[in-house]
Amino acid sequence: MKLAAIDIGTNSIHMIIVEATRQNSFEIIAREKEMAKLGAGVFASNYISDRAFEVGLETIRRYVQLADSLGVDEIITAATSAIREAHNGEDFLNQVVAQTGLCPRIISGKEEARLIFLAVRNSIALEEDKALVLDIGGGSTEAVVGDRSKIFFRDSMPLGVLRLLDMFEDKGTVSAEGRGVLEAHIRFVGQQIFEQIHNIGFDRVIGTSGTIRTMGEAAHIAAGGKSLQSVNAEVVQLKDIDCLTEKLLEMELEERAEVDEVSDKRADAIHLGGVLLVKLLQMAGVTEITLCDASLREGMILDYLERHSQELAALPEPKNLRHRKAANLVYKYEADWEENRHVANLALQIFDQTQKLHKYGDFER
After folding, report:
1. H or E element at residue 38
2. What is the pTM of this model?
3. How do residues 323-341 score in pLDDT, each as one tens digit?
């Protein structure tokens, strides 16, 4: 079975297309990302801009076309912070429904945190560790504490790179005083959540999302490391992230865009993301963070597979492509596999017993 998950985020719209198996695992066969920045200005104006509105719709239309061309059986969609808070967020989703037929689910911050943890747990071997997972998005930061079998705590903080960007008048340098104000705000917003996290306890911190992965890889390279083929399970030191953040804060927008691993589209807010990440790690009381390349969309797939595990397990092991397609149709339309197989066997018997009359061969059979 082929599934697609579209994550309509505040900063980026992501899609993954996977080949799912009846063992509730999957293989990613396509990835797409567009930094539509639906949340740009939302936290100051409470409206998605006309430009972001159109870019977002065009992106989702393109994703649906790609999914259809690859024979996807089901598309799962979820919308997060910007859509939750924008006054025209519902208008955007109504247009998505009208133009694509999809009906995205607006998920809460806590549900987002749960799905993120499912993805991380599937990508990073936790062994006996209890992990604190942080995900910095455009409008919010999710924090989850869990181990390989249980989630002990999950919550969402209104701290995201585009939300922080709306606190500043421009995208230029940030002074020491500006950083102090920013850190005080982060500490104020996150204090109660981190008190609960420390009461539960954890053994390590794992970070996911574009901002954390970008800062982690850029800090690794800035400290003299080689470019990473995959960031998954790589450990980055807090001191290296802090050092890079100091440099980014002193740079203009154009200079930040030239930093290794920082794209043009991230340059506007990556320095604020650095401050946020450093402060969160300091509040956690750790000196390093493990990077993870799985996030919300992988969690959406895993959640879907878990909720449909009985139906998937009931499907037979596919013999070939045609057999798999038939099995997927049976599943999609909630038909009975055994009943369909019985009808197919009857059809074959009729074919065989009347072959002298119709004179068809193996291909037709």
Report:
1. none
2. 0.83
3. 666 766 776 677 787 888 8
